[in-house]
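Notebook p. 47: complex prediction with flavin-adenine dinucleotide.
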Amino acid sequence: MQVVPRYEDLLRGSGVIFVQDSVQCIDPKAREVKLTSRTAYNYSNLVLALGSVTGYFGVEGAKEYALPFWTQADAIAIDRRLRDCLQQARETSDERQRRQLLTVAVIGAGPSEVEMAATLADLLPHWYEALGGNPREIRVVLLSHGKEVLEGDINSHLRSTAQIELIKRVIPVEFLLGAAATAIRPSEVEYKKDDRTATLPASTVIWTTGTPTHPLINQLPIHPQKRDRHGRPFVTPTMQLLDFSDVFAGGDCAAVKDNSLPPTAQVAYQQGAAIAHNLMAQALGRELQPAQVNLRGTLLKLGLEAAAANIYDKFELDGELGHLIRQGTYLELLPIPVHNFKATTEWLREEIFHQHADTEPTGKTAVRAMQIAGGVTIGVLAARKILQMLGDNERQRSH
Ligand SMILES: Cc1cc2nc3c(=O)[nH]c(=O)nc-3n(C[C@H](O)[C@H](O)[C@H](O)COP(=O)(O)OP(=O)(O)OC[C@H]3O[C@@H](n4cnc5c(N)ncnc54)[C@H](O)[C@@H]3O)c2cc1C
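Predicted complex, structure tokens below:
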């Protein structure tokens, strides 16, 4: 839970007033935002950072039966479903039912799906073995209409590394590519491949694919010509809506005109900081500055102890070193020191004591603790150095 800090902790001492509510409608002409609690706010400036929503592409039963992976609550629901299925599988004597309970289908083959499949293929065998089950019976299937994993994604150059790592998991991830999901039912996925319809029995179907535009963004009075092909409004390089200069927008819900950027956290973070600077500049009557977004490469989790790190398109690392760099980088990016400390100790505890396996004798654990402590130090130091280098590069560019 260290990766989901509370807003109260993040904003303490900042002077920002936090209101927890849901926005119901936005009227940029009247400069008004209405909340579900019926409160209405008038603004002099508005920042739109609504992100996107889960998209089911009209696939029958997807919303009802597939598990999304977007929020903390979604992650808890997936954890619960998987544990229930493993428990039920242990208790049933019906082989067909057991295989269904032990099969997880992950829909899509983009970075989130690849990371999810790789992690489950390492984790579930350990969980099932701890219940006394045969881990070889677990199946994790990556089902996607694309012909390859990571197709059309900024991580596509990591494809061959990803494919190799997916097969090297505790149980190899299975690929069902060129297969379009046509219906999700309580215990199966129906799909079309080579013009033939087939089904995959699976009690758990995880859906993380698709990032359609947020409904509140769709409802804004903005002409389609001033939106990209996904319906996201174009913003100026200074992150303002084309027709409403008092409204700033960034992250997944906006598109910078003539500068296509991937919908990722690193873009959202940098645009958020630029918007804050420009709000300040506007208040002080200074000139607004274009947001400088530098893509710092990609980090792909490929199992419990493996990852691929492509740093700034300059060098690439994979395996356990990639994992340590990835963890180190994320820890370095955590927003407040106390939070960083808590996350680091939790991660170390998991690494050293192998919480998913928990079967090693004390002597071996002590050796592993030494190895991990060394590896973690290298990971954090390397990540710190890389982020520092990137920061220097950015500073040089902005001068
Ligand atoms: C499973 C998954 C894995 C990902 N992994 C990575 C990764 O490894 N690296 C990476 O760079 N990116 C990753 N991304 C993408 C990244 O999460 C997004 O690009 C990033 O979060 C976008 O930030 P944002 O601020 O635009 O929107 P969000 O982070 O989505 O924030 C939107 C906020 O608006 C709030 N909101 C929405 N509707 C309303 C409303 N009506 N009223 C009030 N509040 C509302 C939401 O609660 C949320 O807090 C991943 C995304 C997913 C789904």
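Notes: The chain has three domains: 62-207, 212-283, 297-398. Residues 394-399 have pLDDT under 50 and may be disordered.
Next step: compare against the earlier run before touching the bench.
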